[in-house]
Amino acid sequence: MRKSIYILVAVFMAATMVLTSCGPAATTVAPATSVPGQPTAVPPTAVPPTPVPAPADIAASLPRNETLYFNGQQWGSVVCWNPYSSSCNNAMAIAQQDNARVTMFETPYLYDMLDGKQYPLLADGPFAWDAGMTAITFKLKAAAHWSDGTPVTAADVAYTWATHAKYQDNVGVGNKPYILDVVAVDPQTVQVKAVLDATTGKAFNPLVVAAYLSTNYVIQKAWTQTLEARTGDLTKLQADPAMDVVYSGPYHYFFADDTKVVLIRDDSYWGKDASMFGKLPIPKYLAHVIYKDNASGSIALAQGEVDVSQQFNSNIQVLWLNYALPISTYLPDAPYGIGASLPTAFYNLASYGLDQVAVRKAIAMAVDYPTIIANAMTNQSATFDQVPRSLMNPTTGEQALYDHAAVASLQWAGNDIAGAKKLLDDAGIKDINGDGFREYNGKTLHFTATCPNGWSDWQAAIEEVASAGKKIGIDIVTSFPEWAVYQTVFINWPLPTTGYDIVMFSNDGAGPTEPWGRVNHIMNSQYAKTTNNWNGNWGGYVNPAADALINALPGETDPAKIKADYTELVKIYLTDVPSFTLMYRPQSFHTVNESVWTGFPHQDDGTNPPVPPLDLTDGWSIAGLYNLTLVKP
Amino acid sequence: MKHTFRQVFHSGKFVVGFSIFMGLLLIVFVYPVIIKYPPLEVIGQGTFFPPGIYVNTFDSINAPTTYTLILDNAAAKRISNKLSNDDRLAMKEWLVSDGIPDTQIDTSDIVSLLDLWEKNFDPTKSFPGMTYAKERYYQRVNASLQGILSTEAEIIAAQNPQTNALEQTGVVKQTDYVNISNVANVRVLLLGTDNFGRDVLGELVKATGVSLQIGLVAGIIATLIGLALGLLGGYIGGFVDDIIMFITNMFTVIPTFVLLILISFSIGQEKRGAVTIAIVIGFTSWVWTARAVRSQVVSLRNRDHVNLSKLSGHSIVHIIATDILPYIASYVVMAFILQISSGILSEAGLSILGLGPRTTDVPTLGLMMNWAMIYQAEILGKWWAYFPVLVTIALITFSMNLMNTGLDQVFNPALRD
Fold first, then answer.
1. A314, A371, A375 ranked by CB distance to B376: nearest
2. Residue pLDDT, tens place only, B363-417
3. Is A320 in contact with B379 (Cβ distance < 8 A)?
4. Segments making up each domain of chain B, as ranges
5. Which domains does chain A have, with CATH numbers?
């Protein structure tokens, strides 16, 4: 009897195990069992807008011919769909930045990094400053409407700013010194009033005011009021998942879990009006599978499972040269992309010996930049022979802003060991005690160069800095703290007395305030010696002459004077060497696989305005979504 | 003793394992003596240069003596090197799309094909359904065709420092050859270079040495701890045994590798040297040695000779050293070999996760794998950056396990022939 019970129990357990192990497979092969229209991860209180989010099985089998797949943008699962939050981890829908991501939410203007202009999106025609340079006025397009069908009005624009200002969020705090108010003159006309300079009576910083128009979303007033009614304070407002958010953009939430995010096209999108694009964007779905790391993303790209890749794929050219895959980048040859941001090594000017210009310049001169670019970046950066160092990124617009001949004698291309040694010898910084390392006033120069652990191309670059030090008799060792630690240290002055003498971080890329914003962040003393500083000047560089030029530049209108001022700033930068750029890096690693779609932006593709290589989601590059065609229709 | 060695070396498995291991050791010691390049020197500007012999172009052109060789198929080889059969078929495809009749195109006749191509190809032309990737492919093919049929010599020119004009300094004919011994700079890179531009072979030899050291240190530590605890627990028994077994069991239920990862992570990148990693591995992998030794000792504890020794009033240390240890010595040696091999594997596992020793101080087998993966060598088909490392790891552990099995056959009465 007892034996038969044991047998029964054993059989039962085995059966359960077999059934549970088959469970997930059974549900995936039988999609008919799931109820269509049932929202998956939606909190019960929030009512999603129409159409209803898709169940997992539909999202799992999107029609390939209607879906544009991405990688390198979304890491980890989406937290929320709230445009007021900066921690939604929602890379497909929310990114208020110089090149704002306008798939779901829209800005009045779109920035085009290729020609440096702002093109109207929600706005109707270009914006205009008034005669006294005190306010910007622009109109909204009559066709622009929200996903609930109501028109986008000036009141929405004004209320969005009012909300940022009222709750003191990042946008509010960051723009308060420059923007006084945003008001609705009439339902179609918006006026952005600038904070005025006390002496000139003109806008204190017209660049930042204008940049606001292409950086920050317009969010519906009615929805914002609903949100405020159910939240109350800033923390709750930003923590709201906002599943009911009203949007104006061409795509919206379709599916999101920890494996993928899918946006679906809104076929009533206002942009199909003749006053904007005249049609709907081509792909019906924008999908982003969440990959574990770069390597798995690269494999997916090579296999044609990804159409647009925004990640560092080392030696990308091998994929078309050796494997003949239909993969291409914006430029046919190295550096393959448009360099825009400048990963830079900052000297901690409080470290012993780094207050000496000769030491700073000697180290910078001795670094082997060609090896950094060829090995760490696998040639995906312009070299310093092609684009000599300055404060500008390699785009033609910025390069034209300074006088190249005037600073040529100050620029260095690297690997100049003899020159660096001579500079140190002339400054009296020599190895007197014979230990192989130089001393300054009797004390051996010893520095630590650092960047976050796991940022492989940066680590390789920092190793080159250390080896350059050894070649010229300066002891430089490397240290790679974890990012979690690093990010809490380098932003707070004073930097630790050990371990953070040469600190690497990235500078601003391309945007409507550039290159002024970048120069400001690198050299302006207002950021020096501050805490919680995510802007720049981490080494504590102070130069009143540079400050004066930087502060005057935004109000300058005479192109000749602007160029003269930038030239002077580049001269100061290359003379004082408070930091030095190690490589150029593209704004986005825009690599495309043309197995399914073609018509992606590439150099000389004939688009006007030129569509920038920013993954068809950021700034004016969204226009690229309208140019796609299927390879096999 | 002599007899034991003779027995051991009669085991075929042991001899094979031992030879492989000694071969590896020999390479580790001899290679750096013959090839004196520093193993971590960055020589390549660029990543993953393929294996082969690198001949300096500048020195070849300026070689003191050139020879003329008239070889029949030289021109054909030159053409096929630049223009593969696939390229010719693709050219045909383009021409057909452009409206040239299929019959007029003969891909085997390179002269007529090139003639048609030159007359018709337009790099800016695109056909429906043609991707940019394909368009760029045709542009590359077109560029590679420049001068492909030329029989003329190439002119070498140098800039005159006074006039800045180019002046002819030499001519390289298509029939010119140099003897490789006349070229000043030739570098043999049998396994190419890695992502840092370092010679993979030199690095691999050095890394093998370092990994063996890590394995040895880890193995010694693990075996010593395991042996000491096993002997004490097994022989003394009672409360001491309970305590020791309590600790051992606790370590058994915590997965060793997880423990290893946590310790390595908390040490921090700055302090993780090769020796530190070896010590950490040693301190986390002694558990099974301790348990195995203990059970052996428990079975020996009540043997007659041990009891005799006890009655004679010998101390515990003396009894363990003379009456117990010799009986389990062969087992401990085998366990030690396995500990070395698992230490090497653990280092590789840790380094692949990015938790190994610091990169630029020393190379280890795991670090080489780690960097090859970070720079996506396996996706890009750069096999020389990771495959030789895999083979080395496999050879080391295979040889050690083989030695172990050989020893087992000799010492284990149940397995003895």
1. A314
2. 889 888 888 888 888 888 899 999 999 999 999 999 999 999 988 888 877 776 5
3. no
4. 2-44+195-411, 84-144
5. 100-243 (3.90.76.10), 339-586 (3.10.105.10)
